[in-house]
Design a protein that fits this description.
148 residues; alpha/beta; five-stranded parallel β-sheet; 5 strands; 34% helix; binds ligand CA2
Length: 148
């Protein structure tokens, strides 16, 4: 099982700014915990972050045939990017949307996800644990699409 973790804009700032919203764990700290859980479950992890929408689109396109699952925290692009949605829909790799915060309990503009309809499901609101839960969900991703 190979899992590609993609992180969108500003997530490189985790742990350095706004700890009251996003916690004190850095993205490198989250990656270390993801790798630990993945090793327990026998999964391989590739973990990336970009501030560039086009780079995220390229990585999604290149995932075909190389990864079994994509886990994406698209950050602000979640709410704006038709390009990411089209890439996820086109690639044919089951994709899980994740967020640190409960976006539904926040501003109206965060309550709409353009990528949700083309993802298997969402894991949101558990802080850095959302990433760990996503590793565990990836193992069960064969269930994807059955519940639509
Ligand atoms: O809750 C999440 O995981 C989000 O994807 C985080 C995004 C936000 O735009 C989404 O609505 C929800 C923001 C990521 C930026 O992270 C920062 C971390 C530290 C300081 C500033 C931003």
């Amino acid at each position: 099982m190979k899992i590609l973790f993609l992180n969108g804009p500003n997530l490189n700032l985790l742990g350095q700014r706004e700890p009251e919203v996003y916690g004190r764990t850095t993205l490198a700290g989250i990656e270390a915990k993801v790798r630990e859980r993945a090793a327990q479950l026998g999964a391989d992890i590739d973990f990336r972050q970009s501030n560039l929408e086009g780079e995220l689109v390229d990585w999604i396109q290149q995932a075909r045939g190389k990864f079994d699952v994509i886990v994406i925290n698209a950050a602000a692009y979640t709410h704006t990017s038709i390009a990411l949605r089209d890439a996820i829909a086109a690639v044919g790799v089951p994709t899980i949307e994740i967020h640190l915060s409960n976006v539904h309990a926040r501003e109206k503009f965060r309550q709409k996800s353009l990528i949700a309809p083309v993802c298997c499901g969402q894991i949101i609101g558990f802080g850095s644990k959302s990433y760990i839960l996503a590793v565990e969900a990836s193992v069960h991703v064969k269930e994807c699409n059955k519940l639509r």
